[in-house]
Amino acid sequence: MTDEAATVALFKVYEIIAHWINLKGNYKRLRQEGKKLKAIRDAIEAEICKDRITPATREWIAKAKMIESEVKDLKTKYKNEMGHPWRLVRIWAYPILGVEMKEKYSQVHSLWEEGNLKREELDAELPEPVLKRHAAKIEENSSLHMAVQDLLSFLEDEQIRRVGVWGTVGTGKTTIMQNLNNHEQVAKMFDIVIWVTVSKEWNVEKLQEAIVRRLKLDMECFGDVEENARRIFEELKEKKYLLLLDEVQDFIDLNAVMEIHNNIDSKVVLASRSRCVCYDMEADELINVKRLSPADAWNMFQEKVGHPISSPLIKPIAEQVVKECDGLPLLIDRIGKAFKKKGKVVSLWRDGLNRLRRWDRVKTEGMDEVLDFLKFCYDDLDGNKRDCFLYGALYPEECEIYIDYLLECWNAEGFIHDADELVDDTNAFRDACDKGHAILDALIDVSLLERSDKKKCVKMNKVVRKMALKISSESNGSKVLVKPCQGLQDFPDKKEWEDASRISLMDNQLCSLPEFLQCHHLSTLLLQRNNGLIAIPEFFFDSMRNLRVLDLHGTGIESLPSSISNLISLKGMYLNSCTCLTQLPPNIRELVQLEVLDIRGTKLNLLQIGNLTWLKCLRISLPSFFRGIRTQRQFGSISAFVSLEEFCADDDLSEQCWDEVLMEEVVTLKKLTSLRFCFPTVDFLKLFVQRSPVWKNSFFTFQFCVGYQDNTYSQILESSDYPSYNSLKLVNGEGMDPVIAEVLKVTTVFKLVNHKGVSNLSDFGVNNMENMLVCSVEGGNEIRTIVCGDRMTNSVFKNLEVLHINNVLRLRSVCQGRIPHGSLAQLMSLTLTKCPELKKIFSDGMIQQLPQLQNLKVEECHQIEEIITESENLELEANALPSLKNLILIDLPKLRSIWVDYSLEWPSLQRVQISECHMLKRLPFNDANAAKLRCVEGQQSWWEALEWEDDAFRESLQSILHLPIAQPQVSM
């Protein structure tokens, strides 16, 4: 062998050895990469149910399995080769096998990288635990909010698996469900929340399809109903889930849909118009209704409506409602739901009764007939409600609109009713107002209007108002000009207002108006609070024969032009706060349709409106009254208003201005349904009570003030925030007159200011205050306690809901002695302010009497050391304050304790505010007894000085802690 041949042979040997070494390396790398590929494939298959695998993922898994098989073949081939190394013929196969392994390695690695991407995309292929839904915001402590809270409590109860939310269309069921779906507490309770809106044409297959889509399962793999149910069950069997079913209209067999009975951790909340559907769906939380006799009918209605029916104002009306239901359980059920929405608003209850009486009796108990009979409970907005809603857009966004005023405008526009719909024309104006409240309530229920913080006002939010204006602008045959609060100094161009049906230019800077406004179809003109407007052109009103609402209040006008007589359709005219207005034209008497006139705060007198005897509602200032009958000596001017239903004269006058002539005028008004009036002394009140024919009318409402106070209290009652309540305010009075006792018997809101000659409210006679719902005591140096329990055997203040005590300098306790069981049982809000000698709040077991107390505020009571006195509550039950939600303690320098330890439960407590209580070092709350605590407010120094037994609880409060930002100190 030559040297060259030897070199070639040697090179071949080296090459064979190198291929052999490379083959082993390629095999090792391929084997490792194959293991990684199989691991990621197994992980993907384990984490994704086969029914949820997308086509792309399915294709990747198939490729992975195929290449895993090829790798296995190569591994077998490699072992065979390496197992017989002496077969030289095989040696020449090493390079080929090595190349195959190297190429296969590249394929496996590429597929493994693709699998990694699949893992990253896995979350997108899995269903989210909660899909947030667009939900209307619900007010704190509103009925909708409480419904959500109740549902959360039911979901926490292991004994309750299904809850039914049922009621009529538009009551907020979907809003409740949406807020429940989005609630953070629900996300913590369940692994997944499934929302399904059940269509009218639903069937099991469609319901299964909706659930399958929510779970992101593969639709192509599904077959018949039974197989689908099994697969849904398999997907959910290891999960704790919540199923939310909205708009359920018929029984749904959930076992057939998803084998739900086999999952004991599942919960269902369903919303339906029908109580029966909830029962059919085996809802655990529903009221059992069994009634045929009158007694049973009353009990059923009482249970359905709940707390409002206990009101002494509501109960007589409720009895008539039940009577109209004629003992039919389904009808009672539906009516109960409808009336429950009305809360404690008496006007809504009266309107509901009136409407109910206009329907024919139900002849059968069929569901269709009942729903038809009660269509006002669930119908979508009808034409009148739509008109009322659109009318609200005439006012600025978020503007607080007085409810009474808005209802009067609706009535004037003809939105509320036609004359032939009235049950009794005797009190048509009040009945229309009651019906207006019902429409208002319906609009609030669907969130088209909102209640403002002032109970007597509503408002429309920005988005809804824009929608309303868009609808109005697109309406055929209707044109509106709406530009409030835009700083306008000049009246808009003719093309904007010509042929308009409604014009709103309130709260601008208009100083002049066009000489003539060509608006034959104009029905509402709102120009209020243009205080630079001092004159109205003589012919301005010539073409407005269809005008129904004219609002000029708060303008600088000095008179009205004679063209006012053309407003022959005018029903509401508002001139209040026109401080320069001194005269009206004589032809004002041409306004034969005028029902509402407000001239408070003007310089007009009654003689100038004396011909408008057909007025239904008149609001004046008492000085105007005397300018009418004193200066001109024209007696009988008030008595001429024989149709008057509402009369308001609420400014204080000096006692010297009064005589019996004034009251002689008022007591002649025989159609009065509502009176707001200031009496200088008890004697004048007595004259009205003894001689007015309307006093004994059970539907007569009043807001009375007796006595004088400084100008800051010239407007009658702060309790005007309770517009449907009878309210009495005694100012700087003394002792107890029998007429006060008589008025108190029908008073629901009572305020006592600087009264002398009584040491406690019991001196007014506890039997005289059984109907009292709101009580306020302010000032006075003789009151020592509010309720004296000594020698009492019957419950006191059993209907009282709100108690405010302010600046009562010698008050020592809220209750003296042990009060009888049932006393203060309905009290929901207790406020104690500026009572420097008050030492005890919950003494003598009083706390045991307060199951409904929701709000407690104590401020500037400098002798208070304990909120709940330990020595007088030794046998206190753990659940003593089951309803307390808000606790506010401000400027109590001696306060050491709310309660001595953690033994009390605070199941409803949500907010605690503590300020200037530096001696309070411990809180009686922890994770176990105050689970619903959502907000703690206090000062930084106080918070840092608190002592804790549980540091973990302190840390948990950090997220809900609100501390005021300290103001920087300025060096002198």
| Low-confidence sequence ranges | 286-292, 359-379, 631-636, 711-720, 965-972
Total beta-strand segments: 29
The percent range for helix content is 25-40%
For the record, give the distance between the C-alpha atoms at the N and C termini, rounded to a whole number: 112 Å
Question: Can you describe this structure?
Answer:
- The structure is a single chain.
- This protein is an alpha/beta fold and 972 residues long.
- The protein is built from 29 helices and 29 strands.
- The strands form four sheets. It has a 20-stranded parallel sheet, with helices on both faces. It has a four-stranded parallel sheet with strand order 1-4-3-2, with helices on both faces. A three-stranded antiparallel sheet has the order 5-7-6.
- Helix 25 (660-666) links the parallel strand 15 and strand 16.
- The relative contact order is 0.03.
- Residues 286-292, 359-379, 631-636, 711-720 and 965-972 have low confidence and may be disordered.
Give the SSE layout:
Blueprint lengths: L2 H45 L7 H29 L4 H4 L2 H27 L1 H4 L17 H14 L5 E5 L6 H10 L1 H6 L2 E6 L6 H12 L9 H12 L4 E8 L5 H5 L8 E6 L2 H6 L13 H12 L9 H11 L3 H12 L5 H11 L10 H7 L1 H4 L4 H9 L9 E2 H11 L14 H18 L4 E2 L5 E3 L2 H13 L5 E3 L11 H4 L4 E3 L19 E3 L22 E3 L20 E3 L21 E3 L18 E4 L1 H10 L14 E4 L10 H7 L7 E6 L2 H10 L9 E6 L20 E5 L6 H7 L4 E5 L20 E5 L6 E4 L13 E5 L6 E4 L12 E5 L21 E5 L26 E5 L20 E5 L19 E3 L2 H6 L5 H7 L3 E2 L10
